[in-house]
Design a protein that fits this description.
Blueprint lengths: L1 E6 L19 E2 L2 E2 H11 L4 E6 L3 H11 L3 E6 L6 H6 L10 E4 L3 E4 L11 E7 L7 E5 L4 E6 L8 E9 L2 H13 L10 H10 L4 E5 L2 E4 L3 H13 L11 E2 L3 E3 L4 E3 L2 E2 L3 E3 L4 E3 L2 E3 L1 E3 L4 E3 L2 E3 L2 E2 L4 E3 L2 E2 L2 E2 L4 E2 L2
Parallel strand pairs: 1-4, 1-6, 4-5, 8-12, 14-17, 15-18, 16-19, 17-20, 18-21, 19-22, 20-23, 21-24, 22-25, 23-26, 24-27, 25-28
Antiparallel strand pairs: 2-3, 6-11, 7-13, 8-11, 9-10
């Protein structure tokens, strides 16, 4: 099986962090979002991956090659013309094997064994309170009857969560070609939902599977919420002499802590420093420094420095706030 991960989005809602790093490489619970995705795929024996990259895509390529012994191919997306367009660009990498598509800003926890090798094409869904924000699936109780991208008046609350198992690969490729040839767009963009709807019109049998563990990391508050959940799954306790750690926390072995209170729900990245500070519900990224500060619900970017502040911050990479 081949996995396709679209990761070319510029992440405007996560600025300033995405000015200097692609969204897929933002850290949550001790590793980049993309790292969580690749680890899940590896756990299911999937080691053949195509990643769509765009802005700062060289960072993604370097990260994957340095950290994963997998067959990884990279496709450059120069124009942001929608998710359907991103997948369309990967079509030359399709084979007769099924495809698993996972969005590059989505961390998931689900049993893929219920899907992989199944009889039908299958889409991951979750019931949500406001389906207008998502693509939605309409079903007859077993099979998908229609797919609609961000409907103003939704007829279903089954949101598409960004995991797609495509077994009918030839039909899927034809649907992508038809979508682009006939300029089938929604709100001016080629949507994956539209290509899947074309498959339905060609009598494709498609089902859904439930994804309870779905974490969309598209904005700061969602990133922190995902960090809280993933840290809550950590069972081991970290200890640092001279500091108070309130679990759950993730502290990199190379991080330095002195005279500080850290936790709960704090991730501290490689080579970072927390000195004489109180930090909770925050992500302190690689090489960052927090001194004489009290932080809550904060994001501190790579190689940034914060000194003498008592507040909530959203500090991008290589930035400095101090006395």
């Amino acid at each position: 099986m081949k996995a396709i991960i679209p990761a070319a989005g510029i992440g405007t809602r996560l600025r300033p962090h995405t000015h200097t790093a692609p969204k897929a490489l933002l850290h949550v619970a001790g590793k980049p979002i993309l790292g969580h995705i690749l680890d899940e795929l590896r756990a299911f024996g999937i080691r053949d991956v195509v990643i769509v990259v765009g802005f700062l895509g060289d960072q993604i390529i370097d990260y994957v090659r340095k950290n994963y012994s997998i067959k990884a191919e990279f496709v450059s997306q120069e124009e942001l013309r929608g998710l359907g367009w991103a997948i369309y660009l990967t079509r030359n990498h399709f084979t007769s094997e099924p495809i698993l598509i996972i969005l590059g800003d989505t961390i998931f926890e689900t049993d893929l064994d219920q899907v992989i090798g199944g009889e039908y094409d299958c889409i991951g869904t979750k019931r949500v309170d406001d389906p207008r924000r998502f693509g939605i699936a309409e079903t007859d109780g077993k099979f998908v009857t229609a797919l609609v991208e961000k409907p103003e008046k939704p007829s279903s609350n089954l949101a598409l969560v960004g995991i797609y198992y495509i077994k009918s690969v030839d039909l899927f490729s034809q649907a992508l070609e038809e979508m682009v040839k006939n300029e089938v767009t929604t709100r001016g963009e080629y949507q994956l939902t539209d290509a899947l709807q074309i498959m339905l019109k060609h009598n494709c049998k498609m089902t859904t599977f439930n994804v309870d563990g779905w974490f969309d990391c598209g904005k700061p508050e969602a990133l922190l919420a995902t960090n809280r959940y993933l840290l809550s799954q950590i069972k081991s306790l970290d200890r640092r002499e001279g500091n108070v750690l309130i679990p759950p926390v993730f502290i990199s072995p190379t991080a330095v802590l002195e005279n500080s209170v850290v936790g709960p729900y704090v991730s501290v990245g490689d080579d970072s420093r927390i000195i004489s500070s109180i930090v909770k519900d925050s992500i302190i990224s690689e090489g960052a420094e927090v001194v004489d500060s009290m932080l809550e619900s904060s994001l501190v970017g790579n190689h940034s420095s914060l000194t003498g502040h008592y507040q909530r911050v959203n500090l991008g990479d290589s930035s400095e706030i101090g006395y």
